[in-house]
Amino acid sequence: MMPANVDDTELTSTHTNDMVLHMKTTLNIDDGVMLRLRREAARTGRTMSELVETALRGLLQAKPAAVELRPLPSFTSGGALVDVADREALYRAMEGR
Hints:
By secondary structure, the protein is mainly α. The chain is built from four helices and no strands. It has helices at residues 8-21, 31-44, 48-60, 87-95. The longest helix has 14 residues, at 8-21. The radius of gyration is 33 Å and the shape is elongated. 0% of the residues are buried. The model has no long low-confidence stretch (mean pLDDT 82).
């Protein structure tokens, strides 16, 4: 029974607005993903639709703008202490001879 203070046009408007805000659709989802979705819905007490909508919102959320990074520091090493092509000189330098 409809409340006395609600007219037909208000109900139609509310119903139409609700239909615009919620849309049914069909998706093909991998069986393994669907099983995990069902388990997570049961574990958290939420509907599968709520979980999918939350995941989609996260995916579609605006990405933060790339941050300009400062250049890496540089230094002068003073040059090579040994010719790395000279294996014996390299071994001597590494062993402290």
